[in-house]
Amino acid sequence: MKSPPPFPSGWYALGFSEDLRAGMVVARKFMGREVVLFRTESGKLCVAASYCPHLGANLGKGGSICGEFLRCPFHGFTYGVNGECTSTPYGRPPPAARLDLLEAVEVSGVIIAYHHPAGTPAEWQVEPPPEDEFTWGPRRTKTWTFPGHPQETMENSIDVGHFLVTHRLQDPQVLQPLTTEGPRMSAMYAFRRPLPLLQRGVLMKLFTSSNGLGFSCHNLSVPQLGWETRLLVLPTPLDEVNMEFRTVFMGRMIPGVNRQTLTAALKTRFGAAPVELAMMQYILFEIRRDIAIFRHKRYLPRPALGREDRQIGQYRVWASQFYPSSRG
């Protein structure tokens, strides 16, 4: 698969907050390098290059938390979340003993780190999905690993043609054309989903918003069923070929929608869990269809786009900002 430069700048997921509890140390691959995630006993998060600056031990393989510090398994050097070496077993910490930190935060229960080819600090932050007074159901997560690139997977969200063929949707409508502002992008579509028991199927509305190429939120609502699902899509390059593709699912009854819906009746009788799981399984099924394509497709820098594909061209111009070295 021929792709754009493998490591675009921006914020990318390293894991889920619930998977890194206080006192834990976790090794990860990120943008062609080894990194270590750790959370101190008080809950402070830190992400750094894996190798101890003393003599190169991998801190993600045997490193441990001692209160507020990460302890190296080789010589016992300890490091704080600011990267400084705080102690050694046999003398004053060497001035050069300092962790190579990555800028990292937690947004919507996702641990994200910033990457720039030149190592410059982040010039923008991820805006979390909007919240209201109505609560979402429980979070459910899923992670895949496959050959791919964040630009390609993000492009899917505005590729109307693939919704009709790969996902078998009908009657596409553009409710909000592709809109870009700096590192952010959004669009809204409507489709009709055929169903065996309903002559015209059901109307589905999809609002998609992206913060760079590594963090996007998709709200899929089905007014006829009174249900909506929020899907976070989090592609992260591991190396020059492979990526981790994380997703977060949440569902709820659409606030203010008539409660005399099939979903409301099912929820009353069986509770919310079966409805949420059914919607999640439907979305997982559709994601697997996309992944089957990604595993074998090739990126074309000059695709033969038709008139209906104009949003793809607009998207690629927007995406080019995340390759600063390519732009000179």
Summarize the topology:
Layout: E1 10-16, E2 25-30, E3 33-39, E4 45-49, E5 64-66, E6 69-71, E7 78-79, E8 85-87, E9 104-107, E10 110-115, E11 140-147, H1 150-155, H2 160-165, E12 170-181, E13 184-195, E14 198-211, E15 215-222, E16 227-237, E17 242-253, H3 262-270, H4 272-294, H5 310-319
Antiparallel strand pairs: 1-10, 2-3, 3-4, 5-6, 6-7, 7-8, 9-10, 11-17, 12-13, 13-14, 14-15, 15-16, 16-17
Describe it.
- The protein is an alpha+beta fold and 328 residues long.
- The chain folds into 2 domains: 106 residues, Rieske [2Fe-2S] iron-sulphur domain (Rieske Iron-sulfur Protein); 182 residues, Naphthalene 1,2-dioxygenase Alpha Subunit, Chain A, domain 1 (Alpha-Beta Complex), CATH 3.90.380.10.
- 16% of the residues lie in helices and 38% in strands.
- It has 5 helices and 17 strands.
- The strands form 4 sheets. Strands 11-17-16-15-14-13-12 form a 7-stranded antiparallel sheet. A 4-stranded antiparallel sheet has the order 5-6-7-8, with no helix packed on it.
- Helix 3 crosses helix 4.
- The model has no long low-confidence stretch (mean pLDDT 91).
Keywords:
Rieske Iron-sulfur Protein, Cholesterol_7-desaturase, about 325 residues, 7-stranded antiparallel beta sheet, 2 iron, 2 sulfur cluster binding, alpha+beta, 2 domains
By CATH, the architecture of the largest domain is named: Alpha-Beta Complex
Series of H and E elements = EEEEEEEEEEEHHEEEEEEHHH
Terminal residue distance: 24 Å
CATH H level, superfamily name of the largest domain: Naphthalene 1,2-dioxygenase Alpha Subunit, Chain A, domain 1
Provide the gyration radius in Å: 22 Å
Strand content: 35-45%
Identify the overall geometry.
globular
Cofactor: Fe cation
EC number: 1.14.19.21
Family: Belongs to the cholesterol 7-desaturase family.
Protein name: cholesterol 7-desaturase
